[in-house]
Design a protein that fits this description.
Elements (H helix, E strand, L loop, with lengths): L1 H8 L2 E3 L10 H10 L9 H6 L6 H11 L6 H17 L2 E8 L2 H4 L5 H19 L2 E9 L4 H11 L8 E5 L11 H9 L3 E6 L5 H13 L3 E4 L7 H10 L2 E4 L1 H7 L5 H9 L3 E4 L11 H12 L3 H13 L5 H7 L1
Helix pairs in contact: 1-14, 5-7, 8-9
The structure holds 6-chloro-9H-purine and zinc ion (ZN).
Length: about 325
């Protein structure tokens, strides 16, 4: 298809990608075999049959147990490298990738093994693929603020390998304000900041407001429900805040891809762009997400170029590096 070829050829930054969400069933089996782990599923098809999510909770119930196959630094390298090869095919030239250290340290894997494995893939991506890649440490919001703070302290020896911190996992009952102190400390330590704001209940707009007015994060992940409040949209636009939307993910964990909201933000001149979130689980990498949104919303090439330009404008690049991409 013309559209798919155009999108794949369009240089873009991916800013909302969970490395643990790139674990394809084939790699899951390979890592399980290497680590002597017996999986409940016997085939790739059996694994895929468990991907019938209806909401975030049912997704996370599949997502976290799958991570048991990730044991050694080598495993984390293999996972990130497989993603970066796919990213290259998708026209990604810059990737800021989330990782969830607490999902690993809480089951006995060392922080050092997680980060050194991922870091090796980052370094190789630059030299072999020409992709600039960065790591963003995400705190699990359904864990305590104290656990997040001790994870931040664990990360400090590796701060030169981590560009920023984020907040993910189950949002219900875990507002941004719960982590105000952790994020204030992270900023003082020199990290950039972003937070997921995606629940569909009445709390969503309140969480977005907390991020903008109280936390002062540099980006918001998802955050499309901001369209409910035009004054907040104007504020976000004025600040040049980036919104990392994920159409295919939305259609899995909510009832639709939120094309209306995404396009409304695009038309309003807000820095919104398209990302893949957990591509191994949600049926497509970043180019598939651009195509799905374009087909759903009837976007033309100018719109797609604008989305890609927004991905660089919202990326955590130095002005010099950004200018190379725009
Ligand atoms: C996630 Cl879709 C989604 N939402 C919240 N946290 C996550 N971590 C990985 N994928
Ligand atoms: Zn996400």
């Amino acid at each position: 298809r013309d559209l798919a070829a155009f999108v794949a050829g369009l240089p873009k930054a991916e800013l909302h990608l969970h490395l643990e969400g790139t674990l394809e069933p084939e790699l899951k089996f390979a890592l399980a075999a290497r680590n002597g782990i017996q999986l409940a599923e016997k085939s790739v098809d059996e694994v895929k049959a468990t991907y019938n999510f209806t909401d975030l909770t049912s997704f996370l119930a599949v997502y976290y147990p799958a991570m048991q196959v990730l044991q050694t630094a080598e495993d984390f390298f293999d996972l990130a490298w497989a993603y970066l090869l796919r990213a290259k095919q998708n026209g990604v030239v810059h990737a800021e990738m989330f990782f969830d250290p607490q999902a690993h340290t809480s089951r006995g894997v060392s922080f050092a093994d997680v980060i050194t494995g991922y870091r090796r893939a980052v370094v190789r991506a630059q030299s072999e693929l020409g992709i600039s890649a960065e790591l963003i440490l995400c705190f699990l919001r359904d864990f305590t603020a104290e656990h997040a703070m001790s994870t931040l302290m664990e990360a400090l020896p590796y701060r030169h390998w981590i560009i920023g911190v984020g907040l993910d996992s189950d949002e219900r009952g875990n507002p941004p304000a719960k982590f105000a102190e952790v994020f204030a400390r992270a900023k003082r330590e020199g990290f950039l900041t972003t937070m997921h704001c995606d629940i569909d209940q009445t709390g969503s707009i309140d969480h977005i407001r907390q991020v903008i007015e109280d936390i002062g994060a540099d980006r918001i992940d998802h955050g499309t429900n901001i369209v409910e409040d035009p004054e907040l949209v104007a504020l976000a636009k004025g600040k040049g805040l980036g919104f990392t939307t994920c159409p295919l993910s939305n259609s899995f964990v909510t009832d639709q891809m939120k094309a209306t909201e995404i396009v409304a933000l695009l038309r309003a001149g807000v820095r919104v762009m398209v990302n893949s979130d957990d591509p191994a689980y949600f049926g497509g990498y970043v180019a598939d997400n651009y195509v799905a949104l374009a087909e759903q919303a009837g976007l033309d090439q100018t719109d797609l170029v604008r989305l890609a330009a927004n991905s660089f404008d919202a990326a955590w690049l130095t002005p010099t590096r950004r200018a190379e991409y725009l």
